[in-house]
Amino acid sequence: MNSKFFVAVTFFAFAQVFSQSNKTCDTPNDEPALDLNSITKCSIKDSDDKKTKKVSVQVTSRRRVVRKRDAASGVMTNDYTHKLASMKKKTDVINSINFNNAGGLKIIPFNYVDEIPLFKECESSPIYKQEKCFKQAISKHIQKNIKYPENSYDRGIQGRVLVQFTIQKDGSVGKLNIVSPYKGEELGKEAERIIKKLPKFVPGKHAGKEVIVKYGLPITFRIPGVKPTNIKKAVKKVEVKEEIFTFSDVEQLPQFKSCDNATLDCFNKSLVKHIQDHFAYPERAVNDNIQGKVNISFVINKKGEVINVTTKGPANGKILETSAKKLVEKLPEFKAAVKNGKKVNTKYTFPIEYKLDE
């Protein structure tokens, strides 16, 4: 096997918090995601009619806090303190704990902790250079220890693995969560192995006390000159000549294959989970402060395939429409809806609200 390969370690911000280990997702083709070291939220809103209840998904991407520190004294400026206090005040409840009371959180995101965890080699760096030193050190560790899985290399499996882990109060690596690219489970296992080999850190501190800190980064596996074989093809618009029914018209709703029963509640929860697992706020939309609601419609045909995806967003939100459409196109095959004992086509519509905190 040719052993040459390229591994990119980047530090884009990802608008995603992962709740389960070793999930899989599709590798985005163009839009970089945002902040793994921040927070997202997703909720279901019910209507009075249980049969026509819709899913409303709201995802919040938090802009990265820029630590402004005095180069000479190494002390954070009042501007930073006021900005952080303002952001905490506006943050929604996460796990029933408001960020106003950040000192009470059991796990604090890397972007919010007062003193970030450090590699031993970064302890002597000036405070304003410590974050850069941290990223350089973890990148160096990955480049030194990574081994491209032979089977994946031979099959041309490539993509980005999203990694999130905690740094415990004693400096050790704690809970580890992995999101692998489509058909890239071996890449995810390799990323997990590398992170577990990290040396002990100098623990992070918040309000003067050692705390557990959550950190995330993407690791990209790439084979130069080889086209990835694990990219899902985009869903093409297909004309459906047969009748299309709404959810309220059918006897048995379409359903995710992970659901035991064809209930609307399971459909909604599975849809929300899918969006949480795959959501990435477009970087250009963040930079240009583009926000708004995108209404999405799609058809689940008799085969359980997602077709005819359409979107309608704000006037300047074409990039948000593209992002929302990709989320729906990544949906897995469903169990088709049933009416009068036969499988039928069904249409579903729901909104995604893209919102940036100030």
Automatic annotation (TrEMBL):
Sequence ranges assigned to domain TonB C-terminal in this UniProt record: 133-230, 266-358
Chief localization: membrane
GO cellular component: plasma membrane protein complex
The keyword Transmembrane helix is assigned to this record: yes
Source species, domain of life: Bacteria
Any Gene Ontology biological process: transmembrane transport
Entry's localization field: Cell inner membrane
The entry's keywords: Cell inner membrane, Cell membrane, Membrane, Protein transport, Transmembrane, Transmembrane helix, Transport
Official protein name in the record: TonB family protein
Lineage start: Bacteria, Pseudomonadati, Bacteroidota, Flavobacteriia, Flavobacteriales
